[in-house]
Amino acid sequence: MDDILAHEAIPNYFGRRMRGMLSMSTMVLWTTTLFLLSLVCYGPFRYYMAKFGLAEFVYIPKILLFIMIPFMISYIGRASKALIIGGAIVTLFAGWGMVELPSLDQSLFGVWVIIPLLYGLLSAHYFFNNTNAYKKIFVILFIIALSGVLINVFVQYPWVGASFKIGGEEVQISRRWWAFGISRIGGFSGASFDAAIQIMFFSVWLMFVINSNAIKVLVWIASGVGVTLTTTKGVLGAYLILTTFFISGKVFGHKLLWRQIWVLLLLANLSLLVFLPLSTVIIHYNPTFHGYFDRFIFASFGDRLNYTWPASFGLLHHDVGWLFGRGIGGIGTPQTYFEPSNALPADNLYVYLAVDLGPILAAVILIAICLKAARSFLRTNDASLMFSILVFLIAYGMVVNIVEAPILSLFFGVVIGRLFQKDREV
Q: Is residue 135 within 8 Å of residue 26, measured between CB atoms?
């Protein structure tokens, strides 16, 4: 009898283990971990894959995100209104891009670019149902990203400035560049701004899941050192804003008035994000900067005012474009491959969305997200993590398109998915 029970127990045990390993939550956890690790270790990962003739394998982590999307959709069952609306926008504007853009492939590549955002939108609740597991992973990734930058101060990595060919195209592994004679440190990532984004994002998340105040302070200070070493001014600006957010929250005890002030600041930042780039359509700013410090801090912002933003809106050269944009793939990386003569980075979250989806819909989407986050933040302190990430995204989104920075794109999707999650207060 005992032998029979033992024989029955063995398959039941392994069956439970297998079901646990194949649960959607576990698959999302490991898919996300592999993707984030491939970004944090972007330089060595791509360098050694290319060195051993396995360049195509570098896309496996992102392909896995793509494969997981239909699985998560089928697993969800009844979708929320937000998910239905999001799916409709992607479908319609991918189709519009196929009509409006020079080639069908450009629009399809545009969809490929936003895979992390779509994945984040669908996987949002898994990050909060298994917070302890993600906390451990984000601690490890934070340490790797920060260590890569600190070591890079003294050691020149072999992948910096290297490239490889795939599909007949030259793909850069890790950017070698300088700003006014200062070398921009990228650590293990693909560029200095990628390293800064990674360090900043993981530290923001850890500020809400680590219990020890002393460790929180240590993480935040270390994050500031790492971001400063990359000389990424946009991320450093967001870091200073969030430092004020955290310190003022402690001083004023997260009272309602404090939260109301920060909601107003978020909405003011959103207004600037939208209206300043739009104003370049009719106003020629032509700012001039004198002295080394002024040029180091503001020259790239002047380039956006003078050229990048007005030229980006210039892609909308007819009335239909101003209503519906160019479709997904209409600006940014897809242009560099399929429309190189008109390629522009957008360098602003609203500009990127406006060219793809039309200025009106882009503004509506951003306003809806910020108002939802504001309402949640005013109701409960539990929304502080989502609100903090959104403060970071809107602040940095002033000078970067966000959507093409994979980690920010993924967690922009997570923020949207969490805020509009069906039947849940956040």
A: no
- What is the per-residue pLDDT across 259-296, written as a single tens digit (0 to 9) for each? 999 999 999 999 999 999 999 999 888 777 665 555 65
42, 66, 169, 324 from 53: Cα distances, Å: 16, 24, 15, 43
Q: Answer whether 174's CB lies under 8 Å from 43's CB.
A: yes
Is residue 424 included in any domain, yes or no?
A: no
> Quick one: tokens of 333?
């990386």
Q: Give the Cα separation of 374 and 83 in Å (integer).
A: 20
Burial (0-12, 13-18, 19+ Cβ within 10 Å), 35: buried
Task: Share the mean pLDDT of the chain.
Answer: 86
| The predicted structure's pLDDT at residue 424 | 45
Confirm if 142 and 182 have CB atoms less than 8 A apart.
Answer: no
Q: Considering only CA atoms, which of 66, 189, 172, 82 is closest in space to residue 125? A: 82
Confidence (pTM): 0.88
In a domain, residue 426? The reply is: no
Average pLDDT over residues 3-14: 48
Give a yes or no: residue 307 inside a domain: yes
- Residue 164 structural domain: 2-419
Q: In angstroms, how far is CA 25 from the centroid of its own chain?
A: 21
Q: How far apart are CA 416 and CA 398, in angstroms?
A: 18
Residues above pLDDT 70, as percent of the chain: 83
Supply the Cα-derived Rg of the chain in whole angstroms: 22
Instruction: Convert the pLDDT of each residue in 59-84 to its tens digit.
Output: 899 999 999 999 888 887 666 677 78
Q: How many domains does the chain have?
A: 1
Distance in angstroms (rounded) separating the CA atoms of residues 266 and 273: 10
Predicted confidence at residue 188, as pLDDT, reads 87
The DSSP 8-state label assigned to residue 171 in this structure reads: E
Residue 360 lies in a domain: yes
**CB of 315 within 8 A of CB of 355?**
yes
